[in-house]
């Protein structure tokens, strides 16, 4: 599918998202998912640095800050305590979303690979913020050949599939 047709599909999903709120853009690595959502933000004249969240980068920054400010935590401990790290990730994201949706109504969350080894159900976590005309677009990589597939239920979302 070409980018223009995908952009139309994504814009239509946003209109539908005003009722549903959660949109999933799913596809293999390097299939153009990030390019597509950034083109959407540009088309809607929304600043990428304001409406696009690189989740990997954000969570690592927050984790670094936590380790610096709370001596009880270190990377070795957190790597062994996945449930605790998951709760930290969830807390960081809930705080971010609460603040974000006080002023804005559309957010793209991309680069989520950091969550692959943690029991964080991202669609379920963000869905509670998809109300009052708030829309979240989750960009989710998949690679069935290497079993890199998030075990999440996407029934609450409008799904846009991107193929190679």
**Termini separation:** 9 Å
Reading the helices and strands in chain order gives HEHHEHHHEHEE
Task: Using the CA coordinates, give the radius of gyration.
Answer: 16 Å
Q: Provide the low-confidence segments as ranges.
A: none
Kindly state the percentage of residues in helix: 40-55%
Number of strands: 5
What's the number of helices?
7
CATH class: Alpha Beta
CATH topology name: Rossmann fold
Q: How many domains comprise the coordinates?
A: 1
Q: What percentage of the residues does DSSP assign to strands (E)?
A: 15-25%
Which CATH architecture would you pick?
3-Layer(aba) Sandwich
Descriptive labels:
single chain; 164 residues; alpha/beta; Rossmann fold; 5-stranded parallel sheet
Model description:
With 164 residues, the chain is an alpha/beta fold. It is built from seven helices and five strands; from the N terminus they run αβααβαααβαββ. Helix 1 crosses helix 2. The mean pLDDT is 88.
Short description:
This protein has 164 residues and is α/β, with parallel strands linked by helices. Helix content is 48%, strand content 16%.
Outline the secondary-structure elements.
Layout: H1 3-20, E1 22-28, H2 33-43, H3 48-51, E2 52-54, H4 55-69, H5 75-80, H6 82-100, E3 106-110, H7 122-127, E4 135-142, E5 158-161
Parallel strand pairs: 1-4, 1-5, 2-3, 3-4
Helix pairs in contact: 1-2
């Amino acid at each position: 599918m070409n980018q223009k047709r995908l952009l139309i599909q994504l814009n239509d999903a946003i209109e539908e998202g005003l009722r549903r709120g959660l949109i999933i853009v799913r596809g293999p690595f390097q299939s153009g998912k990030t390019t597509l959502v950034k083109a959407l933000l540009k088309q809607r004249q929304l600043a990428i640095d304001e409406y696009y969240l690189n989740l990997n980068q954000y969570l690592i920054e927050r984790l670094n800050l936590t380790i610096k400010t709370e001596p009880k935590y270190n990377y070795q401990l957190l790597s062994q305590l996945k449930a605790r790290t998951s709760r930290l990730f969830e807390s960081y994201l809930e705080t971010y979303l609460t603040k974000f949706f006080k002023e804005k109504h559309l957010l793209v969350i991309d680069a989520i690979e950091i969550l692959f080894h943690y029991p964080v159900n991202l669609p379920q976590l963000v869905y509670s913020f998809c109300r009052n005309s708030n829309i979240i677009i989750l960009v989710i990589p998949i690679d069935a050949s290497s079993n890199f597939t998030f075990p999440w239920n996407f029934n609450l979302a409008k799904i846009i599939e991107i193929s190679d």
